[in-house]
Amino acid sequence: MADSDELFSGLYQAVLSGDEDGAARLATRALDSGHSALETIERALIPGIREAGDLWEEGEYFLPELVTAAQAMKAAMAVLQPVLGAEAKSLSLGRVVIATVEGDIHDIGKSLVATMLSANGFEVIDEGAGVPVSRLIERAREVDADLVCASALLTTTMPRQRELVNAVRSAGLRAKVMVGGAPVTRGWAEQIGADGHADNALSAVNVARTLVGHRAAG
Amino acid sequence: MEGLRPKLEMFTGEEADRVIDHALGVLSKVGFLVENGDAKALLREAGIEEKGARFHPPEAAVRQALGTVPARVCLFDRDGALAADLGGDRVHFDPGSAAIHILDPGTKRRRPPVTRDLCHLAWVTQACKNIAAQSTALVPSDVPESFGDRFRLHVALLNSKKPIVTGTFGTDAFDVMKRMLVAVRGSEKALTERPLAVFDCCPTAPLTWSELTCQALVDCARSAIPAELVSMPMGGATAPVTLREMVVQHCAESLSGVLIHQLACPGAPLIWGGSPAAFDMRHGTTPMGAIETMMVDLGNAQVGKRLGLPTHAYMGMSDAKVLDWQNGMESGIGAILAALSGINMISGPGMLDFETTQSLEKLVLDDQVCGMALRLSRGISLDSAGEAVELIRELTVLGNFLGHRHTRASFRREQFLPSRLVDRATHDDWEASGGADARDRAEGEVRGILARGNPAPPADDLGRDLDELIRAEARRLGIEALPEV
Ligand code: B12
Asked: CA–CA distance from A23 to each of A101, A115, A207 (Å)?
């Protein structure tokens, strides 16, 4: 038992310190010592990434620390994913299709949101920047998305978010729509009938959790 | 006689050359991406090596392009008078551009700008004595979004005489925007001789030219309309976090722009500009008021000067949300540092909140900052040097110099005489005049300017021509009604 405690706390630390190699190595060791992927995720990875988020909110951590923690989490997940099998479904908080809208090449904010969603248990399909509404709809249908996210940084491209909301509705998709980007305000999100809006990557995670019906678990 | 021009530099000359060498190395070894067809064709025609999707220009090609860029770009106002002479260490200011919001003086909160605000912005800019050019600094929310870029230029041309710093939001905007400028000058040739507007063209960090911004670059070159390269590396996000390497990347991106631009038309006017940002590691924002942002701006401008080009930077603005201490502090520091570096066009006045919010009240206050910065950049004059001993001897006789011809003849040139916005009253006078703070005074100043109406209405026929152009463009885009300008 003491051994496994040590192993998991090492993995937790690896995530927290953004050590990708260490995280992958310890995830492999966890499987080798007979722990299930699910147990490893629940005992080390999720607490690790959650602590990183908390530290960020407390002002202790800065973005490079948060993002490298997310990458370490991802590296460990890459080891665990193949053996997750049936458990995977129950683990994923939901499937998210995300992109910057057509006519807009600003992708840094969008990528940050995608990274944080993925580190926090969402399955993220990042379609990149300059993506037409029609392609987002296609992808959302294809993967049966829970959430479609659109970023827009230009006043000229914000209307694509409205088109997306309308298209999701008229295609009869069950996906919720979340929007963001520097010019996007709560008022705009309400006006176009989006289901959610956030103005930074961590609150995007919280809003996404609420939207797909999962509360931040324990 | 000119004295020493106070000058601030971030690198020794040798180090600046090394930055340029490294940037050339980045271009030849790492290469840059181009999404635009016209630019790709130009680069291929010039035999620039293509590896995968990237172009890898050799040093010689870039040096050759640099060799054909004019060292000086002059801008002329709507009437054809010289308004800005970019080159050397000559300093000019224009309002920070393309805000999404306007700070409402009533609520002290931002709100979406409308066409009327755009008119007011032009009026206030016209009134600002220390601001040489206007810019299409607000995006109006009461016209369809796809129409906003060209409509901003239309409004600017009708409401102020000053030359304009602008840009396109879509590839189809350039043509009609150019026709507006030609309408003012009367012919393409006249527009080439007396440029009226500058277009911002932004590479995407790292080392990419997107379809839209690259098209603008090529279009500008082919029309001999000055283009302003605005690379925006973000330290720690889309560029290395170390300031020197940010300058290297900035330089490499701008050099790739110089190459494309000069291939499109050798000798076309170009400005070496930029809007880098030290990425904020807490909020993920792009602080323009961060001292590291400014240091990279200065380093980049020094490199531009070393290459012999006119320079530009986004400085003299703030990330504050309201007109508070942070606003004054960041704007003042930025304007002064930029002036000390001899940056030719400094875009910033009026701008708040990471380049997203314009404020007319801030604009008039910043005009005073610009006045002081311009004064500083002239340095200490040596004009009276020959009379020094004699003057001071006379002074000991007279007791004071308020009535002396020397004072009378020199004080207006020696001192920057601030407007009433800068408080230099005695305490009693200040109290007697209502005890207002700077923001109150600025509100009063703006109210006064707006009450006087359009300070620069165009001649009837020009107004008609511009009106016809914008209406035809609106019809083309299926837009029926336009707000009154
Ligand atoms: C960097 C930058 C660029 C870079 C982009 C590089 C890249 N790979 O993304 C380059 C140089 C390419 C660029 C180009 C242009 N830009 Co630009 N750019 C910026 C700048 C300075 C910072 C944007 C940024 O990356 N911020 C950092 C990230 C982390 O923040 P963020 O994107 O806001 O994202 C956060 C939140 O908004 C939120 N979020 C974002 N997306 C989403 C999505 C969802 C679903 C959710 C929930 C949340 C969310 O979470 C993120 C993380 O915290 C802004 C100024 C600003 N204040 O935004 C101007 C700005 C957006 N650009 C502007 C302009 C005008 C342009 C150009 C048109 C300029 C030109 N004439 O060529 C072109 C546009 C080309 C095009 N068609 O897209 C204007 C827009 C004005 C307007 N009225 O629309 C701005 C406001 C600057 C200005 N005042 O002029 N730009």
From this structure: 34, 17, 28
Q: Which candidate from B146, B238, B284 shows the least CB-CB separation from A63? A: B284
pLDDT at A215 over 50: no
Q: How many domains does chain A have?
A: 2
Q: Alpha-carbon distance B230 to B220, whole Å?
A: 14
**Count of beta carbons in the 10 Å neighbourhood of residue B53:** 12
Residue predicted with more confidence, A38 or A214: A38
From the CA of B50, how far away is ligand 1's center (Å)?
29
At B136-176, the pLDDT tens digits run 999 899 998 889 889 999 999 999 999 999 999 888 999 99
For residue B297, what pLDDT band results from cuts at 50, 70 and 90? very high
Distance of CA A153 from the midpoint of ligand 1 (Å): 5
Do A148 and A74 lie in one domain? The reply is no
Residue in B236, B284, B356 closest to A201 by CB? B284
Instruction: Give me the interface pTM, i.e. the ipTM.
Output: 0.79
Examine the domain organization and report whether A149 and A62 are in the same domain.
Answer: no
Q: Which domains does chain B have, with CATH numbers?
A: 13-59 (no CATH), 73-378 (3.20.20.480), 385-414 (no CATH)
For residue A100, give the H/E element and its range.
strand A94-100
* pTM > 0.80: yes
CATH number of domain containing A44: 1.10.1240.10
Q: Dig out the tokens for A135 from the structure.
A: 């392609």
